[in-house]
What we know:
The chain has 155 residues and is of the alpha+beta class. It contains four helices and three strands, in the order ααβββαα. Strands 1-2-3 form a three-stranded antiparallel β-sheet.
Amino acid sequence: MAGVTASAGTVARRRWMAGRARAPADELAAATRRALPAPPRYRVLRGPETGLAMVRARAGGTGTRFNLGETTVTRCAVQIESGGVGHAYVRGRDGRHAALAALLDALLQDPACRPRLEDAVVAPLAHAQAERRRAAAARAACSRVEFFALVRGEG
């Protein structure tokens, strides 16, 4: 939708959701245990369900979109006791990962819980993901080949 801008809350929520979905399940669980030694009670609105989602791509990152293939996705929705509802979609079949991500989504929407979870869960996961990207870029840089052309003189 051209011309539509997201609110600051929407942008923050996108960041939280992406970080939780991309984090390995064990890393997410460990960060959550540190932040919430006693997780709050919640009700499952939509239990973890696994299905397929179409992955779309662009040739060269800017070309026409095309269907690349399908990937397995698991979704979940929960409601915490205070009434907040959290949703999560994670790649793969890990229902525990989806449920934990949905619980964190609900808690992060609560202004009383957000600062602690931002510091204890969101920021460390973002830092770990940035480190993984840097390490992958460094591995790829080792195999980078620079091409150049020699111009022959006319003679």
